[in-house]
Design a protein that fits this description.
With 126 residues, this protein is mainly β. The chain contains 1 helix and 8 strands, in the order αββββββββ. It has a domain of 88 residues: Immunoglobulin-like (Sandwich), CATH 2.60.40.
């Protein structure tokens, strides 16, 4: 029984890897000393969302999957199972240790604090 479950899980993972990549819709906001990115990723749970900073790029990925009983058969279906992938160039230095993220109602919110060295400074004239 356990080998059968493992085999099914492996087949499911193989199917997920072969799914098309979808670029999610997103919005970027400037919050004085940070940027907040809201990414629409419906169907992606916290466990399947991945956020990485690779060099000067922010990479956001997530797997949207649907789990149905074996006896369930679709009469009509417009909702696809897919993988999300968004790559954004970071044109400002980010404090990677303070990046935070949360997910609510299918929207992933990523907050990217601007590094202290990259923040504008007021220079006093004497």
């Amino acid at each position: 029984m356990s080998t059968e479950v493992a085999k099914q899980e492996n087949q499911t993972l193989e199917k997920v890897r072969d799914l098309p990549m979808v670029s999610p819709r997103y919005r970027v906001r400037n919050l004085d000393h940070a940027y907040r990115i809201d990414v629409q990723m419906p169907g992606v749970n916290r466990e399947s969302a991945r956020i990485t900073i690779e060099g000067d790029q922010l990479v956001i990925e997530g797997e949207r999957s649907q789990h149905f009983a074996d006896s369930w058969q679709a009469v009509h279906r417009e909702i696809a199972v897919a993988n999300y992938r968004l790559v954004l160039d970071l044109n400002v230095q980010i404090d990677a240790d303070k990046v935070s993220a949360r997910s609510e109602n299918g929207v992933l919110q990523v907050t990217l604090p601007v590094a202290e060295a990259a923040r504008p400074r007021m220079i006093e004239v004497n």
